[in-house]
Every structure is written in C-alpha cells, then in structure tokens.
Amino acid sequence: MKHADIRALTFDVFGTTVDWRGTIAREGRRLGAAKGLQVDWEAVADRWSRKYVVARSRNGPWRPLDQILHAAGEEILEEFRIQGLTKAERESWCGLWSRLDPWPDALPGLKRLKARFLLAALSNANMALSIALARHANLPWDQVLGPDTVQVFKPSPRVYCMALRRLGLEGHEVMMVAAHLFDLEAAKAMGFRTAFVSRPGEEAGDPTKAPYVDLIAADFQDLALQLSR
Amino acid sequence: MKHADIRALTFDVFGTTVDWRGTIAREGRRLGAAKGLQVDWEAVADRWSRKYVVARSRNGPWRPLDQILHAAGEEILEEFRIQGLTKAERESWCGLWSRLDPWPDALPGLKRLKARFLLAALSNANMALSIALARHANLPWDQVLGPDTVQVFKPSPRVYCMALRRLGLEGHEVMMVAAHLFDLEAAKAMGFRTAFVSRPGEEAGDPTKAPYVDLIAADFQDLALQLSR
Predict the structure, then answer these.
(1) Is residue B227 within 8 Å of residue B3, measured between CB atoms?
(2) Is B178 helix (H, G, I), strand (E, B) or coil?
(3) What is the DSSP string of A111-155?
(4) B21: CB partners within 8 A, 6+ apart
(5) Is there a domain that residue A3 lies in?
(6) Which of A126, B30, B108, B219 is least surrounded by CB atoms within 10 angstroms?
(7) Which residues, other chains included, contact B30 with Cβ-Cβ below 8 Å and sequence gap of 6+?
C-alpha cells in the first residue's frame, strides 16, 4: 500500500490508545488495599466496559459517554459490593475513565507520527471526556473529534463522515487506527485507510483475515515505522 | 469579578495569539533581500489583512479562510509588483498565514493558563488552517474550534453558540480572549466572560470604555496572573 497521500490519522482511544482495563484494575487494587476489599478488579473493569457497549448499542436518545460511564461506575460499586467509600472517593471512582493511562508505546509512537501526520482522536467519548483524557495522558492530538454533534456512536457511518468533514479531507487521505475490527470495517466503508493495532484483550477476531484492514501493527511505534517506509 | 466558575478560555488567534503583521513583514523583508525588491512590507501585511476583513463582511457563500487568504496573497503579489518568485516561492508566500509566529508572551502564558483552564482556539480560520498554525507555533490548544460547520464568521452569534455547544459549557463558564473589541462584544452578547489583551496595532477603540469587557490584560502572562487571583 502506498502511504504518500495519507495526511491524517484518526485514533480510537479506549483500548487502542489508553489501557482502560489495566488502569481500572490498578486503581481498583489500590482502592481495595486501602479499604480492605477483596474484589476481582479485572472483572470490574470488564463489567464496566460491557455496560458501555450495551448502552452504545441500545436504541433511545443519545447520551454523552461520560454520563453513561459515570452511571455505570455507580452501578459497579453496588454490584461488586465495593463499600466504605467517602462521597469524594465514589465521585473519583466514577470519573476514572477520564484518567486512564496510555499504553507504554503510545506517547513515543504518537510523537513520531505527529512529525508527518495530523493526529485526531476519533473516539466514542464525548468531546469533554476526550479532552480531559488528553490532558491527563498528554496525548498530542491536533484535533479532538467527538460524536457530540452527530449524536450517534461508532460504528455509525455518520461519525466517520463527520470526521472527514471536520478534517476537510477525503477518505483515502485519512487512516483510522484501532484495536477493534468493527471500527475499521465501518471506517473503510466511508473510504478511510485502516490500521489494526494489536492490544491484549481487545479483539477476538483475526485481522489477517479482514479484507478491510490495510495494515497491521504491533503497537504505535511499529505503526510509525511502517508508515515511514 | 469572580473567576471561580470559569472553566475554559477561548482565544482569538490572528493578532491576539500570533503576530501576523510582524511575521509577514519579517518574511517579506527576507524575500525582498533575496530578490532585490523595495517594498513596504508592513503595508503589504495590512493590505493582506484588509482583504480578509472585506471578504468576511461580504455577503455571499461562506468560504474557508485559507482559500480567502491564499487568493488575497496572489493579488498582493500583483498589487505590490512583487516579482521574480518561483512557483514554489509564490505558493509558500500564499500559505504564510499558516506559519505565523506567536507573540513572545503567548506560549509561556498559555502554558500557565492550561494548568487551570481548558484552552480552545476560536478563530475565523477554518479548522485545517487553525490546526496548521497550532502545529507551526506549538500552540497548546485542548480543542480547535472553527467556523466550518456553521459557515459564518465572527462576530456572528452562531460562531459563539457553536463554541458553547462543542465545549458543553454555559457562557459564564467560558472567557473569550481577544485583542479586538468587536469579538468581545459579540461574545458577551452570548453570555461569555471577556478579556481584552492589548496588542500593538490591533484595536483603535478604548477597552476601558467598553461595558462588555470584564478584564483588561497587558499580555497572556498578565492574563494568567490576573486569573490566578
């Protein structure tokens, strides 16, 4: 594949750029140690993410993801019997998705990619959440794109169309980077180039068998290397 | 004035954050020296800016500012008899507004402000131009807002309304920062807080007599100081 006409990369964030499962489990273990709780924190993380996926797929009025995740965080505390938290600790817990840590290769990879490409977040997070996360993790986005104006979630084609309009670019000038095949399939349907990045636990399917995947990278550093050729 | 509920600052860019006149004059003198041209480069800069202001005020279909400035740059070359440029040099000249330098206080001031506030560009530049300029000048915006979707220019109230929608904030939570009174007057009409920043040659009016100006700062460092109180 030729990369010469790619001008911008759009990145999925949760799972692809930041490690939600690892951060939640780590934060949970810290909390558990302080409060003397015995909890399977990886299960907590997966359950929290699952609640978001269900909310995304549900019909009904669109809601900003930070609200969905906050409400789900409250439910998680009940379901896993995580008790003894102060009001401030509960609030901090429910806002944890705005303080997720990047995968170790993410920042150096993005720095290299930024020298050549415009970098945009294209997450299902509403813009306020995406910006908070970028500030926390120092993600060097040139632009933060969010579903706020179209009020639908990926993989709706309207999200990818919004991104092209905002960037003022054609699909073949933009590469979607994600650790999830459904995201890349939908981007490709709108004419994007696509790069799959392997992240532990994110994707059960086989990217080598997906005809809509243009490039497969081990991580963001490897993506920068492959796109520099 | 209480600043406690301000969560975001929106910045005018041309004249307020970057020094278009100084950069164009400097670049012009460099070009003039190389080509043996005698040209009043400050007059060139003012004429170029004037053409944009006229285009902004004209009725008719909205056009992205980078296109307006590019076409005006071509006209400037004819009007001031700037000749002997290669095609690449003409192209570089016409794109000069994407390579303007920040005022000396801008980057340190923004860095201080970013510790406390969300920072967004709210320029009449279309987003592609604003992003190019941010990359050139290392402007640490959390978000770049542009008139692309509303397809009107400041001071149309629709631009400020778009900014509030995108930021998900109320007017009193956002402060518009500009070196031009018309910008602050229009922002105030949509409920924004307003900060006037003095920049040489940008504003003929008297900000101390403007009832819609909440704060007057000498530069971005002074703005950071005043907002930290």
Answers:
(1) yes
(2) strand
(3) HHHHTTSEEEEE-SS-HHHHHHHHHHHT---SEEE-TTTT---TT
(4) B15, B42, B45, B46, B49, B201
(5) no
(6) B30
(7) none
State the residue range of the domain holding A206.
8-19+101-227
Q: How far A86 CA lies from chain B's nearest CA (Å)? A: 25
Beta strands in chain B (DSSP E): 8-11, 118-122, 143-145, 174-178, 193-197, 215-217
Among A135, A148, A167, beta carbon nearest to B166: A148
Strand blocks (E) in chain A? 8-11, 118-122, 143-145, 174-178, 193-197, 215-217
Q: Which two tokens stand for residue B158?
A: 């629709």
pTM for the predicted model, two decimal places: 0.84
Q: What are the backbone dihedrals phi and psi of residue B156, each rounded to the nearest 5 degrees, phi first?
A: -60, 135
CA–CA min distance B9, chain A (Å): 14
- Per residue in A134-176, pLDDT (tens digit) is 999 999 999 999 998 899 999 999 999 999 988 889 999 999 9
pLDDT exceeds 80 at position A59: no
Answer yes or no: do B48 and B155 share one domain.
Answer: no
Tokens of B173: 């939570």
Amino acid at the residue B129: L
- Which chain B residues are Cβ-neighbours of A131 within 8 angstroms? 118, 142-143
**Of the residues A98, A116, A140, which one is the last residue of a structural domain?**
A98
* Beta partners for residue B144, in sequence order: B121
Omega before B200 within 30 of 0, i.e. cis: no
The amino acid sitting at B229 is R
Report the CATH number that the domain containing residue B168 is assigned in CATH.
3.40.50.1000
Coil, strand or helix at A207:
helix
The first and second tokens of residue B29, run together, are 């003198």
